[in-house]
Specification:
With about 375 residues, this protein is α/β, with parallel strands linked by helices. It has 2 domains: about 180 residues, Glycogen Phosphorylase B (Rossmann fold); about 170 residues, Rossmann fold, CATH 3.40.50.2000. It has 14 helices and 13 strands. The strands form 2 sheets. It has a 7-stranded parallel β-sheet with strand order 3-2-1-4-5-6-7, covered by helices on one side. It has a 6-stranded parallel β-sheet with strand order 10-9-8-11-12-13, with helices on both faces. Helix 7 packs parallel to helix 8 and helix 7 packs across helix 12. The two termini are about 20 Å apart. The relative contact order is 0.12. The model has no long low-confidence stretch (mean pLDDT about 95).
Length: about 375
């Protein structure tokens, strides 16, 4: 192994290392990048959660800038001093919340600078906010390369922000296909066998219960489904995750008398088992970059109902491995739920096609090699 000083140090800057698709992608990437070539410093502007423990690469150091909410200018100086101390070869920022760190990195004379786009801001789902885009255009003058997780984001950077196509690389996340496997036989034991007793179709979703995911819309659609189906007692809904919408959804279900047919267990780490308990995966989000949970659901052999936003149409092909619906339309979602509830053969056929697509196109080894190629093409490498 090369001496530590001879290996490239990548400084990854994130707003907060919590539970989410971007963080999950970082876990998989950093654990797989060759240790004989790279070291890592993960710089959190505003802290981290226990999700950080999933990074097992020993060549990682963690740093918290302690950025306060609002107009806190002190963090610029803290980041500058840290970067001058670390002397990384590469600065890799992610999403709008860390973009200003690129200007600090340029002042600190970091030789190579990369920015990743994993999804647009919840307050600017179409990426047209003038103030944000002026910042992006200014940053594009000092960023050497961009990485996007979807073709949708790559096209937006090129056409709306004005980044030259030659500086944009689109890399899909991979999936651990051994970890996420289709169900064989009975549903996994999740501690509540009574919940699944008599279940004929289990609709499920996994993710942060944030506003952008529109879980109340999914809840409304499920309530409507139960009111319109001739045999609603076999229907089940599971939403795994936590956030501001969890209580809202639970209250809606209880008020509709469906508390016993729905399960909102909060955050869970055993994602593969939860996915194997579903019959259909549903993602009703208002905006997406590329959804890791869709990829994991597909690897589990589930058909996917998703909104036609962001990178979702790049993953879900109607009539092949799922269905795409408009966002913000619970009535349309309820109709889609009904169609899958009433067609077991469709669920099985599309689930198999979903798994086949993962095996053909979404591999972490391929994704890691693509990141290495970007890093190797940067100035000074």
């Amino acid at each position: 192994m090369m001496h530590a000083s001879a290996r490239m140090l990548i400084a990854h800057v994130v707003q907060n290392f919590g539970t989410g698709g971007m963080e999950n992608g970082m876990v998989n990437l950093i654990n797989r990048l060759p240790q004989e070539r790279y070291r890592h410093a993960i710089i959190c502007l505003a802290g981290r959660s226990e999700f950080a423990l999933r990074i097992t690469n020993p060549d990682v150091t963690w740093h918290d800038i302690g950025k306060r909410p609002g107009h806190d200018l002190v963090w610029y100086g803290r980041l500058y001093r840290l970067l001058r101390d670390l002397k990384p070869n590469i600065l890799h920022t992610r999403n709008l919340s860390t973009l200003e760190a690129q200007f600090v990195g340029a002042l600190a004379r970091i030789p190579a600078r990369v920015h990743g786009e994993h999804g647009r801001d919840v307050f600017d789902l179409e990426g047209k906010n003038r103030k944000y885009n002026l910042l992006r255009k200014a940053a594009s003058l000092i960023i050497h390369r961009y990485i996007t997780v979807s073709q949708d984001l790559a096209g937006w950077l090129r056409d709306t922000v004005g980044v030259p196509a030659a500086r944009i690389t689109q890399i899909y996340n991979g999936v651990d296909r051994a970890h996420f496997q289709p169900r064989q036989g009975k549903r996994p034991d999740l501690g509540r066998p009574d919940f699944f007793s008599g279940a004929t179709c289990v609709f499920g979703s996994i993710g942060r219960m944030a506003a952008v995911k529109d879980y109340p819309g999914l809840t409304r659609a499920f309530i409507q489904l139960c009111r319109t189906q001739p045999n609603p007692e076999g229907l089940r809904l599971i939403i795994v995750g936590d956030g501001i919408a969890r209580k809202t959804c639970q209250d809606m279900l209880d008020a509709a008398g469906l508390g016993q047919q729905a399960w909102l267990p909060g955050d869970r780490s055993d994602t593969p088992d939860w996915l194997r308990s579903f019959d259909v995966f549903v993602l009703n989000s208002l905006g997406e970059g590329i959804s890791n949970t869709i990829l994991e659901a597909m690897a589990t052999g589930l058909p996917v109902i998703a909104t036609r936003v962001g990178g979702n149409p790049e993953l879900v092909h109607p009539g092949l491995n799922g269905e795409l619906i408009p966002s913000g339309e619970p009535d349309t979602l309820a109709q889609a739920l009904a169609e899958y509830n009433n067609d077991v053969v469709r669920r099985q056929t599309e689930g198999k096609a979903a798994r086949n697509r993962i095996e053909a196109d979404f591999d972490w080894e391929r994704a890691t090699a693509a990141y290495v190629a970007v890093y190797d093409g940067l100035p000074g490498h």
